[in-house]
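Can't paste images in this forum, so I'm doing it all in text. The chain is below; anyone willing to post the predicted structure tokens underneath?
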Amino acid sequence: MCLLNGGIFPEVHRPRRAQRLLDSPIGFLVARLSDRKRFGRGLAAVFGPRTQPSEAELDGFWECASAGNGLRNYHRLIRYMRERRRHRERWVGPLLGGEVPLSFINGHLDPVSGKHVVDRLRELVPGAEIHDLPEIGHYPQTEAPAEVLRAYTAFRQRVAATDAERA
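Text version of the structure:
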């Protein structure tokens, strides 16, 4: 399994102000007040400084998020943060102690789940396969697609070679 930036460890997850507000009793109101400008500013803030999305890319993200009144559900979708805390052992335990090969591709400049998450992973799983992207933010697949593809391809090749040795 190959994971990209994410708040895998709730104890080091750093939600943005908008996420905390969405997960509050006024979350429904925050979701309804969201507009393209606020959305774009918040999204761009989790990208790396040299990999900022273009206005056209932000328009695409906005189109996806707002289609079918999708923003009206953001206060419900954000509940994953609570669920991640509540089910931490059940969800994280198998990832860290399982038999499935694990790789992590991480953008260090992500303020939500950047280098601090990698540091925690290294603490819990010394020798974990980690592909560091020091100039990248929260969306490595968008900010550095070629690097993500190279890291993933290398991981898959190592897994295939290991599987071949076992056979």
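The longest helix spans residues 145-166. The CA atoms of residues 32 and 72 lie 6 Å apart.
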